Amino acid sequence: MNLALTLEYLEAEFYMKALESGVLAGHARAEAAYMQISKHEDAHVAFLMEALGDSAVSKPTFDFTAGGSFDPFAENGTDMDTAYAQLLALAQAFEDTGVRAYKGQAGNLMNTPYLEPALQIHSVEARHASEIRQIRGLEGWITGNMRGDGMPEATQPVYDGEENVTQGGVDLTGLTYADDLVGDVTEAVTQAFDEPMSGDTAVAIASLFIVSEDM
Asked: Nearest CA to 62 among 73, 54, 53?
């Protein structure tokens, strides 16, 4: 659960800084979404800190430029349009990571009091991800391992593995129902099932934006 807390710390601070930056001015839908999502992430942090008690990790120091690769808050001379695009792209990457990371940890939470609230948070993160993706002009779901137009190449690890078409040992593209599907069966199958993300992968992604941590 400390991995979840670290990701929630990251998201909570990101949305807070985004709202304070002024980059969202003039983008009513995005600003409204960020305001609401910010409240959700704060609630997630508060819950996880309380649930973990003395074992909760401290909040890391974050660098949302990822060492100078981004300038989502327009703090280093980036024009507002570019900063806004980066702000949305990073939000998508963070939310899509969160969805997969919670799923990846579900097995570790079996027979613990944390499983149900983790699943509750997971579904809300999925709603966040869908909203951000649609604000960016994308579909609300992931197709294959495609990160979507305008997403930096550095975000590709968020989507690797999503091209899987086998669930529970069953190749879904080989079932008879697929004959009745319109369009690319493989794409539809990858859209229908989100894939879990390992803790190591989630940590590696989050670490791109962490300067110091206590994990």
From this structure: 73
Element spanning 214, H or E: strand 210-214
Q: Which two tokens stand for residue 9?
A: 């710390």
Amino acid at 38: S
For helices 115-135 and 28-52, the axis angle rounded to 10 degrees is 160
Could you report the per-residue pLDDT of 158-169, keeping only the tens digit for each? 999 999 999 999
- Can you read off the two tokens belonging to residue 131? 């909203």
Sign of CA dihedral 197, 200, 205, 210: positive
Interacting residues of 125 by C-beta distance below 8 A, sequence separation 6+: 95, 98, 99, 102
**80 CB-near residues (< 8 Å, 6+ apart):** 23, 74
Which residue type does 175 have? L
Structure tokens at 13: 């601070």
SS3 209: coil
* Average confidence (pLDDT) over 87-99: 97
pTM across the whole model: 0.92
Other Cβ atoms less than 10 A from the Cβ of 69: the count is 13
Cα–Cα–Cα angle for 138, 143, 147, rounded to 5 degrees: 65
38 in helix, strand or coil?
Answer: helix
What domains appear along the chain, each with residue ranges and CATH number? 2-144+196-214 (1.20.1260.10)
Cβ neighbourhood burial of 53 (10 Å; 0-12, 13-18, 19+): exposed
Longest dimension (CA), the chain: 56
